[in-house]
């Protein structure tokens, strides 16, 4: 597995080795030994596994969990292809408001520690994204910042399909003014 640290504190991208033959393929999108060798510690205890399937042009995010305790995520693309974004929402962080992106396909993954926001745009039909989460879903703790916020400047294509929740999400400045963002330690 290849690991690459992203430009935001604690976020990583992972590309597993894919084994192909005439029957198809075999791949392990997560390997604890490879993760801990790259990141320097074990992955969080997994509290929930979730999957989303999105049509081409669907955009999801910027999603994050209220802290404390927050929610760390290990996210991989099982099928299709997505442009994945990691956004630093931690007030006081040296990279606050900045983002990094990686195109995920064929089981490639990203790791986001608690406090970072996550978003993606599906680049192919039926793009399937799977999440290992450090805590279960608690609706009151699940928050969003607008994907279309000009301050963030995410390259979201015109005509991207967003949920009503994501269309109504506050800007980064509004979320900060209402003390909805995580704080850097």
UniProtKB/TrEMBL annotation:
Lineage top rank: taxon: Bacteria
UniProt-listed SUPFAM superfamilies: RmlC-like cupins (SSF51182)
Family indicated by similarity: Belongs to the dTDP-4-dehydrorhamnose 3,5-epimerase family.
Xref: PANTHER family: DTDP-6-DEOXY-D-GLUCOSE-3,5 EPIMERASE, THYMIDINE DIPHOSPHO-4-KETO-RHAMNOSE 3,5-EPIMERASE
Protein name: dTDP-4-dehydrorhamnose 3,5-epimerase family protein
């Amino acid at each position: 597995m290849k690991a690459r640290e992203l430009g935001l504190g604690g976020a990583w991208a992972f590309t597993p080795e894919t084994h192909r033959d005439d029957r198809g393929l075999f791949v392990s999108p997560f390997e604890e030994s490879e993760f801990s060798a790259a990141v320097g510690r074990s992955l969080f205890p997994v509290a929930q596994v979730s999957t989303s399937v999105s049509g081409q042009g669907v955009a999801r995010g910027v999603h994050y969990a209220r802290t404390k305790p927050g929610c760390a995520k290990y996210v991989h693309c099982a099928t299709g292809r997505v442009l994945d974004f990691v956004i630093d929402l931690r007030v006081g962080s040296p990279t606050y408001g900045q983002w990094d992106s990686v195109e995920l396909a064929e089981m490639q993954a990203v790791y986001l520690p608690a406090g970072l926001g996550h978003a993606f745009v599906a680049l192919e039909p039926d793009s399937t994204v799977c999440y290992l989460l450090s805590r279960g879903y608690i609706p009151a703790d699940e928050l969003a910042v607008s994907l279309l916020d000009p301050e963030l400047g995410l390259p979201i294509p015109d005509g991207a399909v967003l949920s009503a929740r994501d269309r109504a999400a506050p800007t980064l400045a509004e979320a900060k003014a209402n003390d909805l963002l995580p704080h850097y330690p």
